[in-house]
Amino acid sequence: MPLTPESMVADWLDHPAGGPLLRGMLAEHDQDAAALNPVRRFPMTRLVELSDGRLSLAELERLAAEANAAGVEAPEPAPPLPEWQERITPGRFTGRTAVVTGAGSGIGRATASRVAREGGRVIAADVVEQRLDELVTALAGHEVVPVRADITSERDVAALVRAADGRVDALANVAGITDSAAPLHEVDDATWQRIFDVNVHGMFRLSRAVLPLMLDARRGSIVNVASEAALRGSTSGTAYTASKHAVVGITRSAAFMYATSGIRVNAVAPGGVATGIEGAMTSEFGRERIRPTLAALPEVAEPEHLAASISFLLSDDAVNINGVVLPSDGGWSVH
Ligand SMILES: NC(=O)c1ccc[n+]([C@@H]2O[C@H](COP(=O)([O-])OP(=O)(O)OC[C@H]3O[C@@H](n4cnc5c(N)ncnc54)[C@H](O)[C@@H]3O)[C@@H](O)[C@H]2O)c1
Prior knowledge:
The chain is α/β, with parallel strands linked by helices. The protein folds into 2 domains: 9-69, no CATH class; 97-334, NAD(P)-binding Rossmann-like Domain (Rossmann fold), CATH 3.40.50. The protein is built from 11 helices and 7 strands. The protein has helices spanning 9-14, 18-28, 44-50, 57-69, 106-117, 129-138, 154-163, 189-217, 238-257, 284-295, 303-314; strands at 97-101, 121-126, 144-148, 170-173, 220-225, 263-270, 325-328. Nicotinamide-adenine-dinucleotide is lined by residues 101-102, 104-108, 125-128, 131, 149-152, 174-177, 198, 202, 225, 227-228, 270, 272-273, 275-278.
């Protein structure tokens, strides 16, 4: 089979002519093939989408033409593992109102979509209005209330809670940004402040605003999105790692405090997820240190995989679960 831009990364790597060409291109960018292990089952075109302009379709087509011109026979690919299918639980959120932040993209969008398709009324918050418009269009026929809100703004947080009309059964604090993988000595004040504003202060303020409603109703479920960086020090920069450890601290304290008030508070710690998350690993020092941990990353997950974990914890199915930090990372954390 000839290689095309749509061929899987694994097929490219295992191809006798395409493999060396791809490795050569990676070496030019100071990368090795291990960096592609987590995305072996992705079509190469997906890497164009995720590369932030570093890999173009034209470059990929040129590489494919060069590999195919070599005229060598590619090995028979191994049969693929069965694909995971998202299975909706009809009515799991019927009659419930869920606030989801970061609902315009990635994990937040997949979570908002899952809850809405399972019957919930979703207050979908994001700082980028156009993303919310797209979400509403995609979920036509479901109950989605878009609210353009920056969770770092106290005023926007208040408006978000008002949009819920006095009732919040579930809150998913998903919105977040990453850092540049910078080690402590490279972190400037503005970066530290911005990472904490979005990842910590935002979810803290929104939770503080929502909790009185849950306390009055004597029921509620909060899920905070942490990260692998909340479990160890070797996956991200110091600012992001510290912010996600803070998310775990808030989760545990709140889980303890409200355990007798009918409110559960849990966290999900994603590993690698294919989203357009803001932030690139521009710190050379950090990149070099983190590289071995990233090389052990299992396959990168889809946002829907994370939505499955988050919606479970948000739902009554997680009735007896409070205060956990659930790694949803394909087992990365047991390495
Ligand atoms: N993608 C990953 O590999 C990964 C891994 C571990 C943890 N996470 C965490 O998952 C969460 C979601 O990330 P994602 O990968 O889906 O990213 P994403 O960029 O695809 O989505 C995040 C959304 O949050 C919104 N947002 C950012 N700042 C905001 C603000 N101040 N107010 C309101 N909305 C804001 C963005 O506009 C965006 O639509 C984050 O907390 C992130 O730290 C992601």
